[in-house]
Amino acid sequence: MSGVGKKVVDVAFKASKSIDWDGMAKMIVTDEARKEFSSLRRAFEEVNSTLQTKFSQEPEPIDWEYYRKGLGSRIVDSYKEYYESVEIPKFVDKTTPEYKPKFDALLVELKEAEQKSLKESERLEKEIAEVQELKKKLSTMTADEYFEKHPELKQKFDDEIRNDYWGY
Fold first, then answer.
1. Which of 2, 76, 91, 16 is nearest to 47 (CA)?
2. From the centroid of its chain, how far is CA 152?
3. Given Cys at both, which of 7, 28, 48, 89 links 33, Cβ 3.0 to 4.6 Å?
4. CA–CA gap between residue 111 and residue 113 (Å, rounded)
């Protein structure tokens, strides 16, 4: 296998091992997103499989003698000479070093956004629990019990009464 082909296969193999497909699948909430995610995973696995099979094998050597019998020695020798003179240049990756710092910065930003999102999610879950509790108790709750939980509203109403503002 050529150096470039082997490198591509190695990178694809490492990438497939580092992807947490199950973890990502747990985060998906809509059916449409699940369908898209499974399409993405299937496409990734197909490409990875193709890379593993096509590029992991050495090409079969050319049977020059077979062609000499059918075409003649002179033309086959000419093709063989040209074939062997072809040099495939080595791949030099100039793009990765350029974009790696940007990618790393985005990863840091992603982690910060994830932490912020988790905190906000926690806050919203607490708020939802409070609202559900309030919803259950609302029919039997007295004004005093409500104002215990929301002293700022009690203060607002007291100020309005004190200032003779009755809402009209």
1. 16
2. 44
3. 28
4. 5
140's enclosing H/E stretch is none
User: Around 104, how many Cα atoms within 13 Å sit in the side-chain half-sphere?
Assistant: 6
pLDDT at 127: 93
Q: C-alpha 35: how far from its chain's center?
A: 15
- What integer pLDDT is reported at residue 117 of this predicted model? 93
pTM for this predicted structure: 0.38
Tokens of 128: 């939802």
Lookup result for tokens 């299937």: 42
| Nearest-angstrom CA–CA distance, 157 and 151 | 10
Residue 15: name the closest of 54, 58, 52 by CA.
52
Let me know: does 6 contact 51? Beta carbons within 8 Å. Answer: no
Listed in sequence order, the residues at least 6 apart from 64 whose beta carbon sits closer than 8 Å to its beta carbon are 76, 80
Query: What's the CA gap between 17 and 45, in Å, rounded?
Result: 11
Which of 109, 120, 59 shows the shortest CA–CA distance to 88? 59
Mean pLDDT by 10 residues, the chain (168 residues): 56 64 83 89 86 73 88 89 87 84 90 93 93 83 84 89 76
